[in-house]
């Protein structure tokens, strides 16, 4: 049976209002919440992030902090304060040399900024853990993805990445994705995740680190190049506690849901980690909402321990709301109630 069920939650400002929403989550059979924190939230609303986390915990929910869209390195629609405040330190397109609207996480400036953010959160916010939300290089991200599409360009080939590559390999960084460039990108992408996780655990040793990567095919012939596509390489990191994969479009065949979930559960088991699967609970909904239940039951039967959906109330009130957002939310809540093990239920 499933041990954890939750949704992401954003737009948070006041603990007393958040409490009503948390109760609604509990009524929808959730026992956990991912707080999607924007850079502005962390900078401006910090005292209330602490209060909101305490409120959720007092109600029995497990709380994970999502460094949502930070630097546009993590997934998410939020805007980035780092990019606003820094004209440089951006990822650079390999083919055109143009700067991109994403921070290069291999630069000292961004790493320093990010470590300060997570250290502050770890020190003052009594959450249960952190959620690394779809970290990725800006380009390419379409290759072999669930949405398809191919790209020749890639990032990052900024001066910092070029110098680091040359220092390690002894020759200038190529403009094409050679096997060495692929390895270099992956190694660097994991370096910052590892260091941030280490720093969190040094401050809050019980903090659970969940790393959620894109749900991709990664076959012999085609693979994505987001930097976190080698699941073995990601999951085997000692300080990652839960291996998680993202949402899947409901229009895809059930075989795809099975394939992604089997690989997620297997990789997590191989490295002695917890597993987590995400469900689409916004934007796109299945023609028959019953498919949401079918997928939830499939995941339960396949051994998924933690189930999360993006997002609270089906994204109701946002431009990315599901067409029948509140019905999606209610269906999800019922499905959670059917698979969540009784001893983990908060709903009275
Ligand atoms: Zn770079």
Structure report:
There is one protein chain. Strands 1-2-3-6-7-8-9-10 form an 8-stranded parallel β-barrel. The radius of gyration is 20 Å and the shape is globular. The model has no long low-confidence stretch (mean pLDDT 95). It has a single domain, classed as TIM Barrel. It has helices spanning 15-27, 39-44, 46-58, 81-85, 108-124, 159-169, 179-203, 231-235, 254-270, 290-301, 325-339, and strands at 4-9, 32-37, 62-67, 90-92, 99-103, 129-133, 208-213, 242-245, 274-280, 306-310. The protein is of the alpha/beta class. It is 40% helix and 15% strand. It binds zinc ion. Residues 91, 104, 106, 156, 158, 160-161 line the site of zinc ion.
**SSE ordering:** EHEHHEHEEHEHHEHEHEHEH
CATH structural fold name: TIM Barrel
The main sheet orders its strands as: 1-2-3-6-7-8-9-10
What bound compounds does this protein have?
Answer: zinc ion
Can you count the beta strands? 10
Computed Rg:
20 Å
Q: Helical content, roughly?
A: 25-40%
Largest sheet: 8 strands, parallel, barrel
CATH architecture: Alpha-Beta Barrel
What is the CATH C-level name? Alpha Beta
Number of helices: 11
Question: Low-confidence stretches at least 5 residues in length (pLDDT < 50)?
Answer: none
CATH homologous superfamily assignment: Glycosidases
**Domain tally:** 1
Structural class: alpha/beta
Per DSSP, what share of the residues sits in E-state strands of 2 or more residues? Answer: 15-25%
Terminal residue distance: 19 Å
Mean pLDDT: 95
């Amino acid at each position: 049976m499933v041990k954890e069920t939750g949704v992401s939650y954003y737009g948070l400002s006041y603990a007393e209002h958040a409490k009503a929403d948390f109760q609604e989550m509990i009524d929808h059979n959730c026992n956990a919440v991912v707080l999607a924190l924007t850079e502005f939230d962390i900078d401006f609303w910090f005292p209330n992030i602490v209060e909101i986390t305490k409120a959720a915990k007092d109600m029995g929910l497990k709380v994970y902090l999502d460094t949502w869209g930070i630097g546009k390195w993590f997934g998410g629609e939020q805007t980035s304060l780092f990019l606003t405040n820094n004209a440089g330190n951006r990822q650079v397109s390999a083919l055109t040399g143009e700067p991109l609207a994403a921070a290069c996480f291999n630069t000292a400036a961004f790493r320093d900024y990010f470590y300060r953010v997570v250290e502050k959160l770890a020190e003052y916010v009594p959450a249960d853990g952190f959620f690394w939300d779809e970290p990725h290089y800006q380009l390419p991200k379409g290759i072999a993805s669930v949405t398809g599409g191919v790209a020749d360009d890639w990032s990052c080939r900024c001066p910092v990445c070029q110098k680091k590559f040359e220092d390690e390999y002894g020759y200038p960084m190529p403009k094409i994705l050679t096997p060495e460039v692929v390895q270099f990108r992956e190694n660097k992408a994991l370096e910052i995740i590892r260091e941030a996780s280490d720093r969190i655990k040094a401050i809050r040793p019980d903090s659970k680190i969940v790393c959620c990567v894109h749900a991709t095919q990664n076959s012999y012939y085609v693979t994505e190049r987001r930097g976190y596509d080698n699941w073995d390489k990601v999951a085997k990191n000692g300080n990652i506690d839960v291996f998680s994969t993202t949402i899947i479009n409901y229009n895809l065949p059930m075989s795809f849901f099975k394939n992604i979930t089997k690989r997620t559960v297997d990789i997590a088991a191989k490295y002695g980690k917890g597993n987590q699967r995400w469900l689409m609970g916004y934007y796109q909904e299945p023609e028959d909402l019953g498919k949401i239940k079918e997928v939830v039951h499939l995941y339960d039967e396949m051994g998924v321990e933690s189930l999360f959906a993006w997002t609270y109330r089906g994204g109701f009130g946002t431009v990315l709301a599901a067409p029948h957002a509140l019905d999606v939310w209610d269906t999800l809540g019922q499905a959670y109630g059917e698979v969540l093990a009784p001893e983990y239920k908060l709903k009275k």
